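subagent[fold] <- orchestrator: predict structure for attached chain, return tokens only, no commentary.
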Amino acid sequence: MNTIKLKDLTFKPYISSAEIATAVKNVAARINEDLADKNPLFICVLNGAFVFAADLFREINIPGAEITFIRMKSYIGTQSTGEVQMVSGLYEDISGRTVVIIEDIVDSGFTLLQLKEMLRECNPADIKVATLLFKPESLKCDVTIDYVALDIPPAFIVGYGLDYENMGRNLKDIYTIVQD
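subagent[fold] -> orchestrator:
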């Protein structure tokens, strides 16, 4: 894998598609075991988590499992704005259901914290969180992440659904910024 250029930034290979696939299968196996007797509703947080959600959901073998999508926004460029906005909401009834939030990445945790608070108002039986990537050193609030595919250090990354100004989502591997 070679470096790539997206707008004004250069990125280098960081996590291969093979490593990602193995991590996704491991998370799915844990969810299949933990929630086998539930009727889970998976909630994919768009835009970044759509690739992870598709791969993860194809590995879920729980009869009756469903998936839906919401859209949250908290980034401009490479920086979090500190403000979380719901751009497109949840229309399914989640009362009494086990909900699994599918995130692409958890860093500060603020988006996840706000989302969990909003979902709790709808009286689900339980709320679980599955994330492709977790930056434990960047966590700034008290949130529980039930299923983590990969822990990474604080770095800006693109690929496998994650973007830099809407570019790079289509990359099969994950890349990180080349520091000057």
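orchestrator: received. Logging for downstream: The mean pLDDT is 91. The beta strands are 4-6, 9-15, 41-46, 66-76, 79-88, 98-106, 126-134, 147-151, 157-158, 174-177.
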